[in-house]
Write a structure and sequence with these properties.
- The chain is α+β, with helices and mostly antiparallel strands.
- It is 35% helix and 18% strand.
């Protein structure tokens, strides 16, 4: 697959993102003297314009920011939260209680927690992005949002990736007139480039909403025209979101210590998929100390255990939970490996539904001073609730899918609660370097980020670590990259239900990662998913940095 010419390591800053138009927005901030947070926030707002089916201001966002050489990092989290009127029993289960959605919960009647007005939670992206900018930004907010406003107002070409996403959800989008008008003009999906340029996606209403934020900050969104319009729209359609949910929203900021995993120090918000990334890495590290082979069988077992613990013990609260520190710690991993070597491993539960993927955006940034940012944002499912609010042009999330629809469960619905998100933005230091990493792709984000970190720790470049074959494991099922097919028999002998798969540009077997890394004495280089060829690293001077085959 063709790549962009490699311009070498960057010393003046760099941004990686799944779309070059968004990455260039961030690089523009670096050229203007902005910080890595300016670059990340500009990229985040722009990515919500060029791939609104993945993320945007109608969803949630999570950032990790680290100053050069600092012992701690700062997280700024704006998760999608359940509305104040939400209740644990608000979604009656469908007859037969089959599984559905990204998290494989029991299906609810009419899939009301996946699409439509009741699926919409309170969006936190704008609060998180603006709070991070207020704390760490150097440039005016209006300058940071200018590229996104221009992309929305003047329009941009639909690429094949966006067109394929629209085609995949065309039936669902058709049920909502405002969504159909935007993405299915004339009843047909926006066309990507073929015999000529792709169709242009012009979003003037979204541009106006972004301009409101640029001029008035987050208050203009949550307590102004946009907040009132979103609440009125969802409320009139039967949703639970109200003006007071939006008006009362605040992002959470915290100073965090790293999680120590062998020689690594990993920074990230534990109330996300990061806790499970840490657990899997700790188990693999402990197993290595015990003399176990760190091959596919161990990774399948470690990931399966981390996902099982996640669904059993990780709740929806945002306050510090003792379970997070325990699951992410080395002592728990030693206990797990000791159980295994003694033949007492916990029985694996069958997979609850398909591990669907294909949502979320991740980006990474570094500036010339060495400040690093890892940022993941999402509207949750592809196109979120599938609803576009007509006055603001905002694609609304389906954040209620995060929750188990059954009352009395660890992740049951509660008013104001943040859901069980798999986003895993991390910054990792040591040995002899630093990496900034994350991914998009539902639950598969967790397995992808963990395996890439492990390969980078063992000496691979970040690009080589991203390119390497991966697997994803939950319960007894394993999805195995065809390039590692030789491991299938061993995995099957260990009791796994093995599915050998081939990753292609429009599949999501192993998520869509990107990041930046450096070793001591060298500059920053990108690692992007070349199977999804719009991913790119852009240096501060606007030149692309992406290895070629």
């Amino acid at each position: 697959m063709p790549g962009v010419a490699d311009r070498g390591a960057a010393s003046g800053g760099m941004v990686t993102a799944p779309d070059p138009r968004a990455a260039h927005a961030g690089a523009l901030m670096l050229r203007a003297g902005g910080s890595a947070v300016d670059a990340a926030v500009a990229t985040a707002f722009a990515i919500g314009v060029v791939e609104p089916f993945m993320s945007g201001i109608g969803g949630g966002a999570w950032l990790v920011v680290r100053e050069p050489g600092a012992r701690t990092a700062t997280t700024v989290c704006g998760p999608i939260r359940a509305p104040g009127l939400a209740r644990a029993d608000m979604f009656p289960l469908a007859a037969g209680a089959d599984t559905a959605g990204l998290y494989g919960w029991p299906a609810v009647r009419g899939e009301a927690n996946i699409a439509g007005p009741l699926s919409v939670g309170t969006p936190g992206a704008v609060a998180a992005l603006c709070r991070a900018h207020a704390r760490f930004g150097r440039l005016p907010l209006a300058e940071v949002l200018a590229p996104a406003i221009e992309l929305a107002e003047e329009g941009h070409e639909t690429n094949w990736f966006a067109s394929s996403a629209i085609c995949a959800e065309a039936r669902a989008l058709r049920a909502y007139p405002d969504s159909a008008a935007l993405f299915l003009p004339g009843g047909l999906p926006l066309r990507g480039p073929s015999q000529g340029p792709g169709d242009r996606l012009v979003q003037p209403r979204l541009a106006a909403t972004l301009r409101d934020i640029a001029e008035g900050g987050p208050e203009a969104f949550y307590r102004g025209r946009a907040g009132r319009a979103i609440a009125a729209f969802t409320g009139a359609a039967g949703g639970a979101l109200r003006e007071e949910d939006l008006a009362g929203y605040e992002a959470a900021e915290a100073e965090i210590e790293p999680v120590a995993v062998g020689p690594l120090r990993m920074y990230g918000p534990l109330a996300t998929g990061v806790v499970s990334v840490a657990e899997a890495l700790q188990i693999v590290e402990a197993a290595g100390r015990a003399g176990l082979d760190r091959g596919p069988r161990l990774w399948a077992r470690a990931l399966s255990r981390a996902f099982d613990d996640r669904l059993r013990e990780v709740g929806t609260g945002e306050e510090e939970d003792p379970a997070w520190a325990r699951l992410a710690g080395a002592e728990h991993a030693e206990e797990v490996v000791a159980e295994w070597t003694a033949g007492r491993g916990t029985a694996r539960r069958p997979l609850a539904g398909p591990a669907r993927a294909g949502c979320t955006s991740h980006l990474s940034a570094v500036d010339g001073r060495g400040m690093t940012v890892s940022l993941t944002q999402t509207v949750l499912d592809l196109f979120g609730s599938r609803m576009v609010e007509p006055e603001t042009g905002v694609v609304l999330n389906d954040g209620m899918m995060y929750f188990d629809p059954r009352p009395g469960r660890m992740t049951s619905i509660a008013p104001g609660a943040a859901g069980l998100s798999a986003v895993s933005p991390v910054i990792v230091t040591g040995p002899g370097g630093e990496a900034v990493l994350g991914a998009s792709g539902g639950r598969r984000i967790i397995s992808t980020v963990a395996q890439i970190i492990a390969r980078w720790r063992d000496g691979a470049t970040l690009q080589d670590a991203v390119d390497a074959p991966r697997l994803h494991a939950e319960g007894t099922r394993v999805w195995l990259d065809r390039r590692e097919e030789r491991a299938a028999a061993d995995l099957a002998a260990a009791g796994h239900d093995v599915h050998v798969v081939t990753e292609e540009p429009t599949t999501w077997h192993f998520a869509r990662p990107n990041g930046l890394a450096r070793r001591d004495g060298t500059g920053w280089t990108p690692g992007v998913d070349r199977m999804k060829p719009h991913g790119v690293g852009v240096c501060h001077d606007g030149t692309a940095s992406l290895p070629t085959d």
